[in-house]
Amino acid sequence: MSDVYTRCRAAVTKAKDRGKKVTGLTIHGETFSLTFKDKPMPQRFAPWAYSKIKAFETCPKQFYHMRIAKTYTEPESDHLLYGNEFHKAAELYVPDKEDLPKKFDFARPVLDSLKALPGEKHCELKLGLTEDLEPCGFFDKNVWWRGVVDLLIIDGDRARVVDYKTGKSARYADKGQLELMAMATFKHYPQIKKVQGALLFVVANDMIREAYLQEAQTDLWSDWLKRYTAADKAVRANVFNPRPSGLCRQHCLVLECPHNGRS
Predict the structure, then answer these.
(1) Going from the N-terminus, what domains does the chain have, and what CATH number goes with each?
(2) How far apart (Å, rounded) are the C-alpha atoms in residues 201 and 241?
(3) Single pTM value for the model
């Protein structure tokens, strides 16, 4: 049986285990999409995260079908599985809970350099914020924003935020997620005056750095709040217009969209 059918069966089983009713299946070469019974519309965009707002801004219509109605599900790609595996390996290696698997030996030197840095280390740290930008638990009922920091190092009034990336190039690096993690760090650790952020591209052997100051929080949050408000208005109004791009015909799973080209 081909790999796509194996992954398809696994996705159907996973969906059923989560209580979803699968109503259709479409195979596109080496990828596939599942359709599900529609669910009631949410009343707001929150709780949100970097990936959620990026998905909305990429294409509101695709966001509706993938994230709200969930009539389609994105198949787990080999790249995604590899990334998840590396994150788990680093989570266990940095605090010396387990040795690094041989397949990730290439990243041992850079991870060792992180281990050697002074400060209190937190791996895969789940952070939450309320709508008033107050710190809260990741799963609290009043959580408004959520984020997971791959590695947070607290050293006095300084902190380091590291976001692991397993892509082959840092050319189109997006520092948005890094910025949000830095701002959440300021809220959860009010003694922190400066955050040194880094997108660590372990496969490409590259690092994108950015520094964030506590006094710049207001300006940084202003932009994110505008972006959140735009997404929240769309959800409340149930208006999700397509945003066509050159990726629609080859990569979008939403067959209902006129820009898909495969419907």
Answers:
(1) 3-76+224-251 (no CATH), 102-222 (3.90.320.10)
(2) 34
(3) 0.82
